[in-house]
Amino acid sequence: MHTAHANDDTSLPRSRQLRLDLLHTFEAAARHLSFTAAGAELALSQPAVSRQVQQLEASLGAALFERRHRALVLTEAGRVLQRAVQDSLERLRDAAARVRAGAARRQVTVTCTPGFASFWLIPRLAGFTAAHPEVDVRISATLAMADLDRDGIDVAVRFVPLAQGRGPRLFEEAVQPMCAPSLLRDAARPLRRPGDLARHTLLTVEMRGAPTTADWEPWLDLMGLREVTMAHTLRFTQYAEAVAAAVAGQGVVIGRLPLLADLVRRRQLVAPFRSPAASQRGYFLTLAPQGAANPDALAFLQWLQGQAGGDTTPRSP
Q: Can you tell me the distance from the alpha carbon of 251 to that of 234, in angstroms, rounded to the nearest whole number?
């Protein structure tokens, strides 16, 4: 019976059982061959380290260090224990790393334009997160063309001319002037035809090196107009700012559909002229190599396509 329990630490008196805190202190002292240095690493005093090593030696019934003048040297027993402790700690670190990796949140990283993120993606995103509560979605909203590999992107939504589109097309863009309903009801400044814009404030987005009305040009071209002349101009650095000004009744913005479809449905914006015109630009999906290996990215891509399939371009009032 005694032989069966010879290697069972729990059968020993409590004073002789191995304590993990003492083994941790011993490992540091053995690595540094200094109680002082071990104490500095463990936030313990030198006497505290020495005392813990003595407790471990007492529980083992063997000396682990030779205490020489200003020096420590491991005994044979100390070297045996050091190898065993270091091996155990390494296996514990590996196990902890595997546990952390398994517990890490699943993630999908998406890049798109700020306008797409603000007006189309974010209002719908709760639907995806409700269906996939274990997946975090990270959105990189930028006008810059992200490097998918370098930036760790799974899915890109690219806004480009139709002829340059690669990958599945999410939807094509249509454009038309939009304003708050209050402007449409202003009898003193009617908005029945494009020439009536001359009485209103132009809301536009600044583009470096481009004309003031660059964001209006696709609509002007489609309408056969060379330029738009308006009473005043308000310039913004972001499309979302120009749209917010339009909702507040401060002027007329070039509306992009289906990005602004929700605002139109809620009657926060209205289109004073007849049907929208296709801009010959669209939003295309690109799945990065790392995204192709990420099941959550594939699910997000399918969800985007499903959401786009439910969009319709609203007609003018």
A: 8
Contact 248, 180 (CB under 8 A): yes
What is the C-alpha to C-alpha distance for residues 136 and 108, in angstroms, rounded to an integer? 6
Summarize the confidence of residues 222-230 as an average pLDDT: 77
**Residue in this structure with the two tokens 């004309």, named with its chain if needed:** 211
The answer to whether the CB of 274 falls within 8 A of the CB of 313 is no
Residue 317 resides in a domain: no
Name the one residue in this structure whose structure tokens are 């224990």: 81
* The token pair that represents 149 in the structure block: 């590999």
In a shared domain, residues 139 and 191: yes
Q: Does residue 315 form part of some domain? A: no
- pLDDT value at residue 266: 95
pLDDT tens track for 22-47: 999 999 999 999 999 999 999 999 99
| 316 compared with 313, residue with greater pLDDT | 313
Is there a single domain that holds both residue 215 and residue 292? yes
Q: φ, ψ for residue 30 (rounded to 5)? A: -70, -35
* Domain-embedded: residue 159: yes
On whether both 111 and 22 belong to a single domain, the answer is no
At residue 158, φ and ψ (nearest 5 deg) are -95, 135
- Looking up residue 189, the CATH number of its domain turns out to be 3.40.190.290
Residue bearing tokens 């992200």: 146
> What's this model's pTM, rounded to 2 decimal places?
0.63
Give the residue numbers spanning the domain of 36.
3-103
DSSP code, position 231:
S
Decide: 315 and 275 in contact? Cβ < 8 Å. yes
